[in-house]
# Entry
Amino acid sequence: MPDSEHLLTPPVQWAQRKSLIYISICLEDSKDAKITLEPQKLYFRAKGGCDQKDYEVTVNLFSEIVPDESKYVIRDRLIDFILKKKTEEIGRASCRERV
# Structure
């Protein structure tokens, strides 16, 4: 994959409940996905879209998650994440940046 200057950022949507964070990365036909879940970060990089261009996004989280109890699925049009929070809480945004 090329250097980060040529990477595009896919659209990201999120929602939360007391014990879970839901994130959807909207990228159709994604290939060669590299996904990393860390306690306060989600990293995604893949080729996708009709032109198979390179996409990358890092979502920094306010709420700490449990990576081993979190999961994701790669679908035809998007990548869905269900992230298990370490402690149950709600009230502030779960993502540090506006996505």
In short: DSSP finds no helices and seven strands in the chain. The two ends are 24 Å apart (CA to CA).
